[in-house]
Amino acid sequence: MADLEDMKVIDPGVDDNIAKLTPERIEQTINRVLTQESAARLQVYLETCVHCGLCAESCQSYISRDRDPDFAPVAKVKDTLWEMVKRKGKVDGEFLHNAARIAFLECGACRRCSMYCPFGIDISYMIMTVRRILNLLGVVPQYLQDTTNSHAATMNQMWVQQDDWIDTLMWQEEDARAELAGTRIPLDKEGAEIMYSVIGPEPKILAQLIANMAIIFKVAGADWTMPSTDGWDNSNMAMYSGDFETMGRVERLHWDRASQLKVKRVVMGECGHAYRGAVYDGPRWLGWPKPPIPMVHAVEYYYELIKSGRIKIARKIEEPVTVQDPCNIVRGRGLHDKLRYVINAICEDFRDMEPRYEHNYCCQAGGGLINCGPPWKRSRMKSNRIKADQIHDTGAHLVITPCHNCHSGIEDIIGFYKLGCHVSFISELLVKTIEMPEA
Amino acid sequence: MYQFVSGPLVWIAFIGFFGGLLYRFVAMAQLAKKERVVIPTLSAKFGGRSLVHWVIPFGGASTRKRPFFTLFSFAFHVCLLLTPLFLMGHIVLWQQAWGVSWWSLPEGAADVMTLIVIFGGLFFIVRRLVCPEVRNVSYLSDFLIAILVVAPFLTGYIAHKQWLPYQTIIVIHALTGALWLLAIPWTRLVHMLWFAFTRAFMGSEFGAVRHSRDW
Predict the structure, then answer these.
(1) SS3 readout for A399-433
(2) Which fold has domain B2-27+67-209?
């Protein structure tokens, strides 16, 4: 049964926009997406699903909500796509409100269910199709739409203006130099080996992470640069709001920047969805088989630096730690082993999560969920109880979260469920543990 | 009536079955020409790797969480596929009609396998009523499909044991068997055709593209 508290959440992005729709527009849009944009792939999935319900046990929101049948992945598709198909697009405002709640808040497109379905049906793709339909109807949670609007207007997620960007980089360069003399953040250096691209929130609210990376690059002796103009943001909330056109524009500019700088690789910070957008969803929408320049996730880069000895670890973190396997870099990239290599290198007392690796539970903050903002926080927390249990069971004091959304999401979970631990990015731990050269 | 069901109806059923599956495949391939994600991603190696893990009982993590379902489902499907093909009674008919024959199951084995299908089907139906997450996504069609699949096996078994008047029950057996074959391309039973593709895609997506495992 849908939770009444969740059903009563007021979100102008959803409610006000539904009120502006006409039945004709709803019907036309749904049918267009089902028959033109999605067509064969969707039809095969809808026909192949034999309603067996094995996917239920995979979903963290289902388990967290005391195994409420309405939260099983197949039930989410039933309450959205099956109805749309059955009624040939003739659905009403109340239906769309519930569909928006399900598609934007109860599924993070984490793909855990595709590992439980015997046929490997891509349920997250089906939910993303619902988001696509809702986006084309203008029905998107307000906070999420705001980030998409920001992407469309400023090409970054956080309304960072051109001068803010450069000011922030210069400020972080100063901070980094105070830690390690000689540290620079080279801007627009053509022909550098690495372009470092950040996730939108970093310059806005987590600027210290930029200084951290500058220090790490300096210690490693890396030949790197950052772009001074738009295209520096590798995050992509448009991907999650269903605005694939804007998603494509943002990714194209990001790759154009890297190509203009003639770099050999793009190293990105600790984020999950940004990797997915830059390496998979963006290129696919643009019709590329893969990105033009290889992208290296921060975890992979740290692994490379530590393994090769370009950075050396001088001391280890002593408090008990555990790790969040972010969906988009573990299920999405298989980086679980490299992640653990790095963690074991810098931590004394690592306690692994259960289940782990590809079977880790999603934090239900990524996938655009946390970006739907404060109106939906309680709902999100309720769907995350199993994650709270999972963290608690490790007995760790610190949860390492190599992903921005996981970081914020797990911070929320820790607060809401009073777990008494804290979260950290890897870069924050690295600058505490690596051997710094003498000034 | 027997003449019809053992003559023209057999043709109708087989042509409908094979022709139907062929038509579905070709029609879907046409529709899939617009596909820009699935086709380029498909990888024989990684698709195959996933398929192998899932076709072996308990290969996928979710199958280990539901051991009874897994056992029933695998046994059901294996017997479902093998029994009609290797049943002595069917082979005799093919031999008489088309001059082809092959190895047949010992009678006792065929009996057991038929019962596995019947009880497997019963398990699915009961499960659908009893498990809330399954009941929630069940329509009348789900129950009818299960009954449709079990019917030829049940009526075949009864006919073989001659528990009911043979001439009537064998006609019903043939009718339900034909109906079952004809229904496959046009209902969710078409998972028989598509599941290898959906599995291969997910295996390719996880394995080839994302360097991770989908089981």
Answers:
(1) EECCCHHHHHHHHHHHHHCCCCCEEECHHHHHHHH
(2) Fumarate Reductase Cytochrome B subunit (1.20.950)
